[in-house]
Amino acid sequence: MRVICDPSPLFRPEEVHAEQRAKQKDDFRNYEDNVQTHNVSRTYTEMHTKQTMEFGKEMRAKWCSFNHAKMSITSIISELDNLVDESDPDIDLPNSVHAFQTAERIREAHPDKPWFHLVGLIHDIGKVMALWREPQWYVVGDTFPVGCRFSQRCVFPETFAENPGSTHEVYSTKLGVYEQNCGLDKVTMSWGHDEYLYQCLKHSGTTIPDEGLYMIRFHSFYPWHSGDDYDYLCNDYDRDMLPWVREFNKFDLYSKSDSLPDKTALTSYYQSLVEKYIGSDDLC
């Protein structure tokens, strides 16, 4: 399933929100002084020190067995009320609130793309790993390739200094173990909620279009989609998909200051999308 077009002309938020969003844009992703500065710095330091190629392979073997739990998507979103993402400098509200904020902002701008609304709702539910007593440094936060040189476009790039990959004979080189323009599908990313949910959805046989699955898989890859780095690992397919990831990012990032949604009133609509695009309500 591959239907690719330039989504940027479709982004037409309501006039009433435009001024508010423009004023607030520069305030997002402030890593120096934010709502939970200590937690953010600590989480990224652990992540950048411990996420290695070997660790990534270990996590894929552990989590892609899909035998940890059978939970409905509705239940996972509800459980995320117990999670505050310790890597997020913009918000210290439960993740379930952010899920509905993102979905509703997408629904407003793309009323004809219900699969996109669903992506907005579920994009972070891979964070359920943190509710299973897993440390947040390998669940949340920005993602990055392992097995090649770490980018200075990553947040807190200095914290990679203690990562074994920084001095590895191969992993510390620009391409590392990869070939030029091999495609991101062949790249081992740091383990996190993006990859976990992507793999769960593929395992479920979802009919969410490729664009939606790609958004889920790479929405936290900020040094690429926002930092303009790592293009040397990308192929034409990745470049075709990049506008979609950037389109999603407008809603994921800039919806965090929106008013709190009425989750009860919205549940029926989003449950219908789960049934349409995922079928079985059990995941993970």
Using only CA atoms, what is the Rg? 18 Å
User: What summary fits the major beta sheet?
Assistant: 2 strands, antiparallel
The structural class is mainly alpha
Tally the beta strands. Answer: 2
Distance between the termini: 23 Å
Q: Encode the helix/strand succession as letters.
A: HHHEHHHHHHHHHE
Helicity, in percent? 40-55%
Low-confidence stretches: 1-23
Percentage of residues in DSSP E strands: under 5%
Mean pLDDT reading: 86
* Basic shape: globular
Query: Largest sheet, order of strands side by side?
Result: 1-2
Instruction: Count every helix, treating DSSP H or I runs of 4 or more residues as helices.
Output: 12
Description:
The chain is mostly helical. 45% of the residues lie in helices and 1% in strands. It is built from twelve helices and two strands. A two-stranded antiparallel ribbon has the order 1-2. The longest helix has 19 residues, at 236-254. The relative contact order is 0.18.
Précis, in short:
45% of the residues lie in helices and 1% in strands. It has helices at 15-24, 37-50, 53-63, 73-79, 95-109, 114-122, 128-131, 193-204, 210-218, 222-225, 236-254, 263-277, and strands spanning 71-72, 282-283. It has a two-stranded antiparallel sheet with strand order 1-2.
Keywords:
284 residues, mainly alpha, 2 strands, 1% strand, globular, disordered N terminus
Blueprint (SSEs and pairs):
Elements: H1 15-24, H2 37-50, H3 53-63, E1 71-72, H4 73-79, H5 95-109, H6 114-122, H7 128-131, H8 193-204, H9 210-218, H10 222-225, H11 236-254, H12 263-277, E2 282-283
Antiparallel strand pairs: 1-2
